[in-house]
Amino acid sequence: MAASDLTTDGFALPPVLCFALDGRGAAEPATLEAISPPNHDAKPEARGKGRPPFIWVHLQREDPRTRAWLEAESGLDSFLQSALLADDTRPRCTVHGEGAIIILRGVNLMEGAEPEDMVSVRLWVDRSRVIGVWVRPLSAVEDLVSAIERGIAPVSPGELVGKLAQRLADRMEPHVSELHEELDAFEDALLEDDTVQRGALADLRRRAIRLRRYIGPQRDALTTLSIEDLSWLSDRDRSRVREAADKTTRILEELEAVRERAALIQDQIVEARGARMDRYMVLLSALAAIFLPLTLFTGLLGINVEGIPFAEEEWAFAAVTGLIIVAAVILTYVFRKMKLL
User: What family name appears in the similarity comment (predicted)?
Assistant: First the structure.
């Protein structure tokens, strides 16, 4: 993958990203070589009034250093490595020992990409580190990196996950609002009797369904994390994760509303089309009813037999034509009174 493929909003996410966070809101860059497997028998000590320090490692899956470090240096078992390196992932939270595998998704904001082609971030979180693996860059991760570089770092692994989940939800909201705006345009077009392209409406519904496919499980994953009995999750961390879950729930509800509105617009399009067809059929039926007796009358006068009245009179053609016109006017008046024309 080219370096240009690893950018969003002008920010380049390096394939190997390491931070040592001190638990008090500050962080320093680190290297993979300086990170050793944690000693789970010893609890990290907090410094001053802060939380215990921890490490954040964020790795690009296709980088050759990623798999080598995970297998040789991370201390993770094969199950966790497989979860972090899987090809296809759905949002979930799975507790494993003293840590948790957390897989989340965010909208794709890369230039030229479809936002609903959601991008995954896979995390292993325990009390002393957060190990993330990504395939395509996420703007929410870049937001966290920017905050750390400004000196506003998460103070715990739980806060890092909560902030990431909130940023993912924040990045989704504008895209869901765009779906509502497109539906508003469709409804305005219907009110003004303009033609609504059914293909465009079907595409909007498809986009909403693709978003909902991942956002529903993501809400469940965050809810699960907030209630799990993990020692490194403080009450404040749980509150932040619940807030992210609530935001995700609101987005899910908005997507449900988009789907329902799209279905109603589709029904209105079908009803409007059916009403137009009914009007055309009534009009054609009325015209047929007007011309049927006139056609019968002229057909009788046009048969090639003896005895047709006034056949030899010069004024006969004008009289018959006038009679036909009068009959047509009378029938048209009758049908208008019946509101069939």
Answer: Belongs to the CorA metal ion transporter (MIT) (TC 1.A.35) family.
- Angle at which helices 198-227 and 157-191 pack, to 10 degrees? 160
Contacts of 165 (CB under 8 A, 6+ apart): 104, 222, 241, 244, 245, 248
Structure tokens at 310: 């006034």
8, β-bridge pairs: 11
The two most distant CA atoms of the chain are separated, in Å, by 124
- Model pTM? 0.74
Q: How confident is the model at residue 45 (pLDDT cuts 50, 70, 90)?
A: low
56-90, pLDDT tens digit by residue? 999 999 999 999 999 988 889 999 999 999 987 89
| CB atoms near residue 323 (< 10 Å) | 12
In order of their start, the domains of the chain are 3-269 (3.30.460.20), 279-337 (1.20.58)
DSSP symbols for 70-134: HHHTS---HHHHHHHH-SS---EEEEETTEEEEEEEE---STTS-TTSPEEEEEEE-SSEEEEEE
